[in-house]
Amino acid sequence: MSWDVRACSSVQELRGAVAPIWYYFGRSVPADEQFQRVERVLPPARMHAAWEKGYAVGGAGAFPFMLTVPGGRVAAAGVTAVAVLPTHRRRGVLRALMRAQLDACRERGESVAYLWATEDTIYGRFGYGLASFAAEIDLPRERAAYSASFGPAGTARVVALSEAESVVAPVYEQVAAETPGMFARSSAWWQARTLPDPEWRRRGGGELQCAVLELAAGPAAYTLYRLNGAFDRGVQTGSVEVVEAIGNSPEATRALWRFLLDIDWMARIRAGLLPLDHPLQLLLAEPRRLRLSVRDGLWVRLVDLAPALAGRSYAAAGSIVIDVADPFCPWNQGRWRVTAGDVERTDRPPELRCDVTALGSAYLGGFTWAQLARACRVEELQPGAVRRADALFQGERAPWCPEIF
Q1: Active-site residue among 23, 35, 55, 405?
Q2: How far apart are CA 249 and CA 200, in angstroms?
Q3: 3-state helix vs strand vs coil in the chain, percent to 5
Q4: Number of other residues whose CB lies within 10 A of the CB of residue 292
Q5: 320 - beta bridge partners?
Q6: How far is it, in rounded angstroms, from Cα 240 to Cα 211?
Q7: Is 192 helix (H, G, I), strand (E, B) or coil?
Q8: Rounded to an integer, what distance in angstroms lies between the CA atom of residue 165 and that of residue 89?
Q9: pTM value surpassing 0.70
Q10: Which stretches of 206-304 are DSSP H helices?
Q11: Contact call for residues 133 and 294 (beta carbons, < 8 A)
């Protein structure tokens, strides 16, 4: 082995360590403006790299997040910028990076790691389980009527991006605090990741816009969107691209989407990264016109099983004993008794047996134990155990993260 893995010790090393992921975006190194935004939210010590002769041949980063889980929040690693140069494939570089990263997460007290997978075949071997799906829509505007009319609700106004954070951040936090999969955004995150609008982000589309919906109590919803205008012989063919749309109540969400669906001069409304239980499916008179499609969303890895499971709430009394296999993080291996009040190792006979990836799938409430059992991802050892596990782990809403990090 001609390379070694360690965390970055300086901003200069951080710049070198993110170069492998930029290679796959068609650049040898990040542009100055891009890197300045990275270093505002990713401390050097949170980026591991495989170094060879002073150069990074692979890298793996982890944003420090507070992740919302059912009933609370836990310290989590938002895994990002994972890449190995094609010159060093199939040499164990990625495995070594994952090993160093998860060990560091455990030392920092981050009991969960999660990510968006560029390729969905990579992360299962490191203990990540598919934890959510994300929906995409492409709706013709003339088919955007609601099934039931409603009176005027609040007022909408366009806000300059330079002034948006103070208005929209409180709305986001209200929703993020109760939605599994979302994370708390710092001011640095808003300014470095969410609100900037460099040309490369537009991909030929319009400038990023922000609109805020105010109800009687103040700002209740906001949206970040682009207007991609186009005409064909005088007929509008352009689209509204919804980057993010968040309301702190059903009424606010309904009114916000009515605003987006009613923007003139646009033929279509497109949005991605929506939760599977998005209310548009029931709000619209013609839901099939959404042309809803589904892709994999978040992947979750329980780094330290006991505090991770203890950090979320449970919906029923009783207990379940789970025999967990975790060869990559062997400290998680064994039998665990999970109750609404405690998580502990036990010598009791197991009622369910599964790999740690199945726990990752069930952790945020995105998949039920019954679904996992039907997919042969969990073995029921005692009759009724799957039903009792589902009663314990039941969540109120689908996991959702409105951005790829």
Answers
A1: 405
A2: 33
A3: 30, 35, 35
A4: 17
A5: 338
A6: 13
A7: helix
A8: 42
A9: yes
A10: 250-261, 280-283
A11: yes
Copy the structure tokens of residue 58.
């692979």
Asked if 308 and 77 count as a contact pair (C-beta separation under 8 A), the reply is no
Q: What is the pLDDT of residues 209-241, one digit of tens each?
A: 999 999 999 999 999 999 999 999 999 999 999
pLDDT tens per residue, range 315-366: 999 999 999 999 999 999 999 999 999 999 999 999 999 999 999 999 999 9
**Contact of 120 with 296, CB cutoff 8 Å:** yes
Nearest Cα neighbor of 140 from 237, 255, 280, 254 is 237
Q: Which helix (H) or strand (E) holds 140?
A: strand 133-140
Catalytic residue among 123, 222, 225, 393: 123
Token digits of residue 383:
């009759």
Confidence of residue 37 (pLDDT cuts 50, 70, 90): very high
With a CB cutoff of 8 Å and minimum separation 6, the contacts of 143 are: 286, 289
Tokens for 332?
A: 């998680």
C-alpha 160/C-alpha 254 separation (Å) is 23
Say whether 405 is catalytic. Answer: yes
Burial class (CB in 10 A: 0-12, 13-18, 19+), 322: buried
> What is the rounded distance in angstroms from the CA atom of residue 255 to the CA atom of residue 174?
17
Is there a catalytic annotation at residue 123?
Answer: yes
**Residue 165: both structure tokens together:** 């954070």
Report whether 273 contacts 243 (CB < 8 A): no
Q: Give whole-number Cα distances, 166 to 138, 154, 163, 216, 219, in Å.
A: 31, 19, 7, 18, 10
Q: List 211's β-bridge partners, or say none.
A: 158, 223
Task: Look at residue 263 in the predicted model and tell me its pLDDT.
Answer: 97
